[in-house]
Amino acid sequence: MDSNSTSDLRDRPGVVSRFFSSIEQKYQYYLDRLTPYTAVRWTIAVASLLIFVFRILYIQGFYIVAYAVGIYWLNLLLLFLTPSIDPALNYDDDDDGPVLPQSSSDEFRPFMRRLPEFKFWHSFIKSTLIATTCTFFEFFNVPVFWPILVMYFCILFFLTMKRQIMHMIKYRYIPFTVGKPRMTGKEDTGKVVVG
């Protein structure tokens, strides 16, 4: 056997790596196909959330898993509601990056999120499936007094959302757009004025 044939064998990917590569390609293919269907994606997300909640309620356990995934979802929501460039931070005037308009005469710039909607959905689905999978392993069922976790999560959610809403009010941005932005000013009547 010569050295060229042995190097060819070493350069070829193994069976296991080809298997996982094909799985990854199929997964990416279906994600790409699902991307434009926002309503379908979020329907799947709500269905997976309901399955997780019903599993937790049926088992009457795994409250620490529910609490941990709830904190993660809260973090995802905050990233989704936050602009990619935070106006609270002092940036240099030389920075050419997009910023939020500071007055009504500034140019309209669409709201750019720190976490885009698709990545928010994808992370939500993955975390929900991982949390649901954790409920099948008994060592994740740590005994806790769940009302304290619920109360602490509600307080944390309230304080975090209050801070985020105050941030939105202070820097005058709304992370959601409803409809198409319209131009303000005189409408073109179609008449040509020669002067």
Structural commentary:
The protein has about 200 residues and is mainly α. The protein has a domain at about 35-90 and about 105-175. Helix content is about 60%, strand content about 0%. It contains 6 helices and no strands. Helix 4 packs parallel to helix 6 (about 145-170). About 5% of the residues are buried. The model has no long low-confidence stretch (mean pLDDT about 85).
Outline the fold blueprint:
Layout: H1 3-11, H2 15-34, H3 38-59, H4 63-81, H5 117-134, H6 146-170
Brief account:
The protein is mainly alpha-helical and 195 residues long. 58% of the residues lie in helices and 0% in strands. Helix 3 packs parallel to helix 5 (117-134), helix 4 (63-81) runs antiparallel to helix 5 (117-134) and helix 4 packs parallel to helix 6.
Low-confidence stretches: none
* Alpha plus pi helix count: 6
Distance between the termini: 91 Å
Gyration radius from CA atoms, angstroms: 25 Å
Q: Report the average pLDDT across residues.
A: 83
Overall number of strands: 0
Shape: globular
Class derived from helix and strand content: mainly alpha
> Which assembly state applies to the chains in this document?
single chain
Q: Give the biggest beta sheet.
A: none
Order of helices and strands: HHHHHH
Helical fraction: 55-70%
Instruction: Indicate the proportion of strand residues.
Output: under 5%
Which descriptors apply to this entry?
0% strand, mainly alpha, 58% helix, 6 helices, 195 residues
